[in-house]
Specification:
Number of strands: 7
Radius of gyration: 21 Å
Number of helices: 18
Largest sheet: 7 strands, antiparallel
Strand content: 5-15%
Order of helices and strands: HEHEEHEHHEHHHHHHHHEEHHHHH
Shape: globular
Length: about 450
């Protein structure tokens, strides 16, 4: 799942971007920046792929070396992210997508927002095709799997953020490094809502439908280096086994997510503290370690409890950065990021895009989706472990996909979503689906 979240403009070590006068002011700031109010109109998506370089192997789709970062930068040229090419202009691809890189060499496309899901899919599909062509110029290929079943985790990016992340998550066993280096997701983003009541309904619905949609699109049964166990989504298993304070907020108790998100965010332990004397994060050179006092929260830092260890109080820039280190299943980032869907085979990522778009298409549909999913709310572990083999989760997934098929914006989208509902009814995963989602050659044919 994506952990490279900062924009090129905010990737450095600058910290003085305004003062925070109190906890109440900080909570109000979080509510304002994380939930932008206005009529819901836009949709976006982020796609991730594993990457390999060199000859294919018959032993598995990802059983080939990870790419050299220099080769990746050469292949991407002006589109290269500054994490691997500090002087790159980091241009958007023609369809508006920006390229980022994950710690283990996974590559990500973050779309521009669009007013229609069909337009989003068209632009993102074109950008994905161009991305594959650019990478193939240096014998680098993308692999459409959600978890790496062939290679042990290896971190390529040596940025201080990821060093701090690996240290922090290292105490929970192998799952932190596996998540960082060996998983990939499909993420869908939608507007937060028109007002506080609309935000509450949309936020609650996206969480309620999460276990069923996680199971509907689960396709990562293998993850090399994970402890023994049969899971439909090893990718989500890795996330569920990380720091629960950072990844599993108690949203079922939140009557007002705008206020509750701010309280929760300030009480999450610091992942790292950026060091302004350590150089910018946009390069792989030596940088001061961004360690944080163990167990200390952002609220502790704000209150002055860390004055001796850190030597300064946090500014707004520090709070902005802290928000990028929170990884709940749905994250508030001005819009709402749905983060619980596995990377899909080929071009099948278009299906969850249309599903989320349809389920959020009107207040009435949002309410109906919430009602269907209510019995499954909070069953994240069951959905990740058993997937569609759980009869209640399977029934919920089918009902939600059928509801989505009724409210998609185009006939083509309706047919694709209805096909997914039929697949789920028979208990088949996306990789077992016999429906062709695209006539174009895809990166799965290695």
């Amino acid at each position: 799942m994506a952990v490279t979240l900062e924009s090129p403009e905010s990737a450095g070590c600058a910290t003085e971007q305004g003062e925070l006068s109190s906890r109440a002011a900080a909570e109000a700031y979080v509510g304002g920046v994380c939930f932008k109010l206005g009529p819901p109109a836009l949709i976006g998506a982020e796609l991730e792929w594993l990457t390999v370089q060199g000859e294919c192997s018959a032993s598995g789709p990802s059983a080939a070396p990870r790419p050299q970062l220099s080769a990746m930068a050469d292949a991407l040229g002006p589109y290269a992210p500054r994490s691997i090419a500090p002087d790159s202009p980091a241009l958007a691809l023609p369809g508006g997508s920006r390229v980022t890189l994950e710690p283990g060499g996974q590559i990500e496309l973050s779309s521009a927002p669009y007013g229609a899901a069909a337009q989003l899919c068209d632009r993102l599909r074109d950008d994905a095709r161009l991305l594959r062509e650019l990478l193939e110029s240096r014998s680098i290929r993308t692999v459409s799997v959600a978890a790496d079943a062939d290679r042990r985790p290896k971190r390529l990016l040596q940025l201080p953020r990821y060093r701090a992340m690996e240290r922090s998550f290292g105490g929970v066993g192998p799952f932190g490094k596996l998540m960082m280096c060996n998983t990939a997701a499909t993420q869908v983003s939608v507007d937060a809502g028109a007002d506080r009541a609309d935000v509450t309904a949309r936020w609650s619905a996206l969480y309620a439908v999460g276990p069923a949609l996680l199971a509907a699109f689960a396709c990562s049964p293998g993850l090399r280096g994970a402890p023994p166990g049969t899971w439909a989504s090893q990718r989500m298993r890795a996330w569920l086994r990380l720091d629960n304070t950072r990844t599993r907020p108690p949203v079922l108790d939140w009557a007002d997510p705008i206020a509750a998100y701010g309280r929760w965010a300030l009480d999450v332990p610091l992942l790292c503290v950026r060091r302004p004397d350590g150089g910018a994060e946009g390069g792989n050179g030596d940088c001061a370690e961004w360690s944080a006092p163990p167990g200390a929260t952002f609220a502790d830092w704000l209150s002055g409890a860390l004055d001796d260890e850190v030597g300064r109080r946090p500014g707004i820039g520090d709070l902005d950065y802290h928000l990028t280190t929170l990884f709940p299943p749905v994250r508030a980032s001005g819009h709402l990021e749905v983060r619980y869907i596995d990377a899909q085979p080929g071009d099948a990522w278009t299906v969850p895009v249309h599903v989320i778009d349809a389920l959020m298409s009107s207040p009435a549909v949002v309410a109906e989706a919430s009602s269907i999913a209510a019995p499954l709310a909070g069953r994240w572990v069951d959905a990740a472990r058993y997937g569609l083999a759980d009869p209640d989760i399977r029934a919920g997934a089918v009902a939600l996909l059928r509801l989505a098929a009724e409210h998609t914006a185009t006939d083509d989208a309706a047919r694709a979503v209805e096909s997914a509902a039929k697949r789920c009814r028979h208990g088949r995963t996306p990789t077992e689906d016999d429906t062709e989602h695209s006539t174009e050659p895809t990166e799965t044919a290695l």
